[in-house]
Every structure is written in C-alpha cells, then in structure tokens.
Amino acid sequence: MRSTHTPGRFRLPGVSLADLPGLLTGLVIGAPLLAALLTGLLAGGGEAWEHIVATGLAGYSAGTLATLALTSGLILLTAVPAAWLVTMYRFPGRGLFEWLLILPLAAPGYVLAFAYADLLSVAGPVQSALRDMTGLGARDYWFPNINSLPGLGFVLAGALYPYVYLTARAAFTTTSICALDAARTLGARPRRVFLSVAVPTARPAIAAGLALALMEAAADYGAASFLGVQTLTVGLVKAWSSFGDAGAAARMALILLAIALLLQALERIERGEAGSEATSKRWQVIDRQKLTGPAALGAFTLCLGIFAWGFAVPIARLVWLSAETGAPVASIWQALSNSVTLAFIAAAIGFLAGLVIALGVHTRRPGARLARIAAAGGYAVPGAVLALGGLIVLERLGLGLVGPLALGVLIWIYVSRFSAAGAQPMEAALARAPASMGQAARSLGAAPLRRVREVDLPVALSGALVGGLILFVEILKELPATLMLRPFNWDTLAVRAYAYASDERLAAAALPCLMITGAGLVPVIFLSWRLSRARPGS
Amino acid sequence: MTDLTDERFTGEICARSSTNIYNLSLLGEIIARRGSEAATEWAQAVKDNFARDPQGGDTAQIKAVAAGACSVAIANHYYWVRLAESGSEADNEAAAATELAFVSAGDGVHTNVTGAAMAANAPNRDAARALIEFLATPQGQSLLVTETKEFPVIEGAEQPEGLERLPEFQESQLDLGVLGENQTQAQKIFDRVGWK
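Structure tokens for the assembled complex are given below, as produced in the milestone run.
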C-alpha cells in the first residue's frame, strides 16, 4: 500500500481519498440489499418464519442447490466444448454457430419456461404427436416432466449457457497458441490438448462465466414459479406474498446471499489457483484445423443441438403461437419504448459503477472491494428483495413511491442489481492482461493515477463492450423489481409478457416475449460481431 | 367439492400449486364454512387423490383432463371459455373434450372476483373514484369482461361471447373479506398436508 500513499491530513488507516469513488459506489449499490438484510435480521423470526422453517425451508434450499448443480453440469458439458470447437476447428456451419450460439442471451429464462411448458406438457404438440403416432393413452407411457426440477435445470441452462460459452471462447481465443503448439509438438492428441492445456488455462474465465450464470439461476423467480419448482427464491416470494411478512422474506434472502458469496469465493479461488499469466506477446492467427467425416458431423450436431435447445425451438414455438392466434398489439409499442429507455439509462449508470469497481479492485482499493461485494450481493439476490430494500429506504426517508421518484428508484434498483454484470468482464480483461504491463509502468515511475489512466483503463475498456451490452440486456429482461416499482404508465415489455402469461394467455404473451428477445438480439449480435474480430493480430 | 375427497377419484385429480390465490381462496372458504380441522382433512384427502404433482395454471389443468392425464381438475370457468372461444384449433378441441361443472363448496359455488380499490394516500382521489365508478357501469363492465370472459357484476351489462355455453349456478354468499383473512391459515394447511 505504500506506493499508493496520498498525502493528506485526515486519513483513516489504509483508506485514502482514492477510495471515495469506490465507497460511494458501494453505498449506492449496497443500500437496498443492506436495508433488506437489516430488516431480515432485526424484524424477522416471527410466526411466518417459524412456519417456513418447519414446513419448507429444507426443501427450498435443496431445490435451489440441486437446480444450481444441474444447471452448471449441463452448461459445462455443452458450452465449453462448443466454444472450443468453433474457436479451433473448421466444420460445416462453424461461422454461423460462432454467433448463433450467443443468441439465447437475448431471451430470459421465463420466456423459455413459457415456451417449453407449452411444448412438452401432456396436452402440448410433442406429446400429442407421440400419442397420435403410437395410439397410446396419456397415462400409458413415461415422458420427462417439464414441470420439475430437472425441467427447470434444462430451461435455465438453455437460457444461461452463453455466459460460459462467451467467457470460454474469449479465453480460448486469447490462449497462447505457443502453449497449444507445444502440447501438439509433444504429441498430445486433440482431446488431450483440450482437456489438459486449453481448459485449465481457461478455467478462471469459465469459472467467471459460470458464477454469473449460477447467480442468475439462483435469483430466477419467473421460470421456477411457472414450472412449479420450490426454490429459495420462490419460497421467499411466497413468504412475502402469502404471509405478507417482509422480515421472513428477507431472512430467506440471507440464505441466498450466503450461496452467492460461496459462488464468488469459489470463483476467486479458481482464479487465484489456476490463473495463468500470458507470457508471450506474440499473437498468432489461429489456424483452424479442418474436421472431416464423423468428427465434422459430431461438431455440427452438437452446435445445432445447443442452438435449438436454447433458442431456435422455444422461439419458433412463440412465433407460431403468436402467428396462429394473432395478438393484441395496442400499448405494446409504448412498452417497448419504456423498456429501451429504462434499460439505456440504467445500463449507462451501471456501466460507470462497474468501471469504478473493476479499476478499484485491480488497484486494490478497499473501498472498491466493498463496492464489489455490494454489487455481487445485488446481482445474486432476486430483484424483488432489492426492490423491497429500496422501498424500506424510501419509507425511512419519508418519501412516497410516486412520479419521477418512482422511476429514479427503479433505475437505482436496476443499477444495484446488475452492475456486477458490467464489472465482471472488465475485471476479467484486467486479470487476463499480462501483469508485466503494470509492472513495467511502475518501474518506469508512473504515478498510481497515471497507471490507472494509461494502462488499466484501456485494458478494462476492452471488456467494456461486453459489460455494457450484458447490462442492457439484463435490465431489459428484468421482471420482479419492475413489477413492484414501476409507475402505472410505465409498463415494460417484461411486465406485459408476465401479465399475459400469468393470466394464461400465452399466445398474447408471445409477442412481448418475442419483442424482449428481439430487442436483446440487437446488442447480442453486435457483441458477437465484435467478438469474432476480437483476436489481436488476426 | 367434498366429492373430490372420495376414493373413486384416487389418482384422478389435477390441481395447481397451493401458492396460487385461487386455491388459497377456495380453502379460505372451506375454513370459513367448516372450520380449519375439516379444511385440513379436505386438503389432505384431495392431495392424496392427485394424479400428478401440482403444476401449471388453470388452462393446463383443463388441457390435462382433455389429454387424459386425469379425469377431474379444479379450474375457474373463464379459462375453459377462453379455450372454447380461442382462435387455436387445439384449444377448441381441449374445450370440446371436457365438461365444465359448477360445484358447491358447502353453500353455493365458490367464486373469485376482480376487485378495485383506492389507495388511502391516492393523490387524485376524484379521478380514481370516477374510474372505479366507470368500471361499475354497464359499459365499463363490458370492456372489462370481453377478453377475460368473467361474469359482469352489473345487471344489463353485455355478456362476453362464450358465457352462453355455461350451466346455471348458485353462487356462495360468503363475505369475500373472509377469504383474505383466512389466506395465511390456508397456506399453512396446504404446506402441512404437502400440497405443493
């Protein structure tokens, strides 16, 4: 810390003026969560809480943990090999799959849940066709139940795998070709190069992507409740909506936060133990090997299957439903404009917060570390909890949730909820950069601020596009906090979709669902286009 | 409703999750009419007759009966009417393959309502009152129920298309406020008997 010493008369030990941005960011981001948690600790423990402990808590916890385990298993088995194949090999459709595989990022988990619940239900097209073909009755055969925990894992993994696909692909793309060539020269077969060199090198990036995906999965309410799976988040909302007990709800948020911190810690450990510094500055164009015969067919099938699972099949079903029955379009354009406006403003603010966190953590500012914890907590807990916390803060200040203030609070909650998603890619970019860059600047005598401005900032900004776009899409998809906080004439697409789907008018919900997905596609395709040109030197 | 506890319905009933307000209100009425002990026994016996774990909404229950996954389901009338009136052929077939019956929960048919209320701190009280009063006119009622297929509550309001398909029934006269008061107890009973 000596090198970051700033002269000044009033200094707390280890804290300086340079900590102010981080501390302020942390306070803004952390306040809703803190308010909800304090409520949980101080006001919880009533009759409703005792009832939840007696009847459902173990089940909720097991449900969440099993969902996370299943989701991560499915994601790792699909996204990592797919990322490796499109990065390192040539096969039919590779260029298309490179960006097609990112598309599920545009569709929220609840949209996939609506579509798959309709497709795979006992009265849905798949089972109906099965019965027509075989002449069996509805109770004469076994069929996987989509309204189940494995069903939820299937849906969430389909929606969230791009987080890992993206980070793994970025890591494989920047993997030192020299290391891979060395392995090949030493006689390693392709499978061994993948498992023993590429995956271990990419582990920090894969862990970062998986941590993001799992926090999303743990915070999901829409898909889990729609599919009837008892998770902590579902139980939390139940504690709140059925029992009207914010304290009990906030207590369940404590458990979710503990899970989130655990995920964070695991990712940190991964990064600490397995992180590798790039040693070579010599970038080479990846010379993709051509796959032929069964290998090419296998790669093609895997990529097509993943794309169909996470995007093509559910979205095609929604298009069909929407076209078949027609859908009311009145007020949808207003909702679209509301969604884009809110997401743009909140993403811009969240991006700045993310930048403060990424740079601060990289330069080891305690204030920024605090902000990072606050952001990680916000990203991990359901939006409903933060909205609740925001309302508590508002009440303490003696303010009502009306007019422009309500929009301000909603944007505040978006920032509190999602700035971690903006910060993480920038942190990863800083972590991937050769440590020697900073060391060189230091030995050349650059002052701390100058090092941040001229070395760290440009490096962090290489991850900024990903961060900003993920922020925008995430906010566009957000549902529970928007439902709670929006002023009445500020319905977003997500609110319209939810209103129709919960009223069981799936055909009417299909259009706003498709619009959310469509709006999300624009930045996702742009992101994909940029990433395909991301390899320096190529 | 009491018949649903009968042994002949073992493995035949489809129902949605207990967190749903329709089930909470239904059990709330049974608690009010017959006491919490009888309500617990009812919930336990119905749960024991389930064909499958609670899943999906009212529409999914009706479609499950149509597909043959169960023979009885608990649902609100308007979901059935929407299927019958839908532009989708599969929906129409599901309605045609099922029969809607209004069954008594002890003293008349249990009903759900769509209500309106004004917040105590509403800044535009007169406008809010005017809106609620408009919703209670024949025109407001017609606008409200055309798509939802609910029953209008005003004499002389235009009936939405499809309601003519339904049988006559005698609705329960229970004070609806009681359902709200019993909601927490209903959720606890559902949790205790394992109705997910």
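Helices of chain B lie at 21-48, 58-67, 77-85, 89-96, 125-135, 138-148, 177-181, 183-193. The two ends of chain B are 19 Å apart (CA to CA). Further analysis is deferred to the final report.
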